[in-house]
Amino acid sequence: MKPLTRETLKGVWGTLLLPLRDDDSINFELLEQELHHLIAAGVAGIYSNGSAGEFWTQSEEEFDRINGILAEVCSKAGMPFQIGASHTSPQGTLGLIHRARVLRPSGMQVILPDWLPVGVDEAISFLGRVAKEANGIPLILYNPPHAKPLLNSAQLLQVVSAVPEIVGIKVLGDDAAWYAEMKPVLEKISVFVAGHRMASGCRQGARGCYSNVACLSPIGAQRWYEQIFKDPESALALEDKIVRFWMAHAGRLKQEKGVSGTAIDKMMASAGGWLPGMSARLRWPYQFVDAATAFEVGRIARAELPELFV
User: Fold this and answer.
1) At what angle do helices 232-246 and 218-230 cross, to 10 degrees?
2) Cβ neighbours for 292, distance < 8 A, ≥ 6 positions apart
3) Could you say which of 134, 221, 237, 306 has the lowest number of CB atoms within 10 Å?
4) What domains can be seen in the chain, in order of their start residue?
5) What does the alpha-carbon distance between residue 160 and residue 111 come to, in Å, rounded to a whole number?
6) Cα–Cα distance between 12 and 199 in angstroms, integer?
7) Do residues 83 and 175 touch, judged by C-beta distance below 8 A?
């Protein structure tokens, strides 16, 4: 697959959620169906082993099989794909990169070493070594709010200037002042922000999102991205509705019940109903949202956000 660049890394990317049976085993048949659904939705690309892929729970054999299916299906369809090679250990990351690079993905996603957080100089050393191991496959740094460490704009500029193999980054995004501070980074790499704030983010220099909204409705998220350029005011109005919905449901579950972002993403996929058989289950020992709640969230989503389901 052709390597991504700052210019080509854009749009709505769908996450490959981990479909689980009741015994916590992976339903690989459903995983392949999920890929075909995402391709049919017309998203810009698909990535594995983000948070909703529960990468920290996988064995090496599962990692190989998941990404082998991803590479085979996406390559046949001409769909760009990224492999998440994140690991809490720097040595573990190198091992995953070495295993996955033979699949020639469009890019590799990595987190910074997580158990003992690194400083900026250590982050540069780590990412430089990872880039060498990736052997020409570009890197995307996964640095959402729960990352350790969470880099600020000045630190990000240091890192991406020192490691030119980094073509993109996933961050939360923020207000206009944040985008002003991030301008030098926005000019060097492709910055992806939270999916539910995609329209306002793209208006201020972001290039797209690894989309939580696509968990709910892949085709709806893709249609919304296209609307940003065809009818920006309507796209911003839809963002207001999406943010209100997200805060009312995802935000409430996080605040009142301590539900994780991973559990929210999988609940939204179950609520969206676009992949029959996909449950909100997470692997032990993590808490997930029950089926009745997911069904009710899906009912409300269709009532409040019909634009995503037409």
Assistant:
1) 140
2) none
3) 306
4) 11-215 (3.20.20.70)
5) 14
6) 11
7) no
Could you say which DSSP state residue 87 is in?
A: -
CA angle 182, 218, 202 (to 5 degrees): 20
Is-contact 29 224, C-beta < 8 A? no
Structure tokens at 113: 């070493």
Closest C-alpha among 87, 52, 49 to residue 250: 52
User: Could you give the 3-state DSSP secondary structure of residue 125?
Assistant: helix
Q: Which position has the token pair 């983000």?
A: 50
Q: Tens of pLDDT along 165-204?
A: 999 999 999 999 999 999 999 999 999 999 999 999 999 9
H or E stretch including 14? Answer: strand 11-15
Cβ-based neighbours of 285, under 8 Å, separated by 6 or more: none
- The crossing angle, in degrees rounded to 10, of helices 291-304 and 261-272 is 70
Q: What is the pLDDT of residues 220-261, one digit of tens each?
A: 999 999 999 999 999 999 999 999 999 998 878 877 778 899
d(CA 258, CA 239): 25
Neighbouring C-beta atoms of residue 135, cutoff 10 Å: 11
Hey, what amino acid is at 238?
L
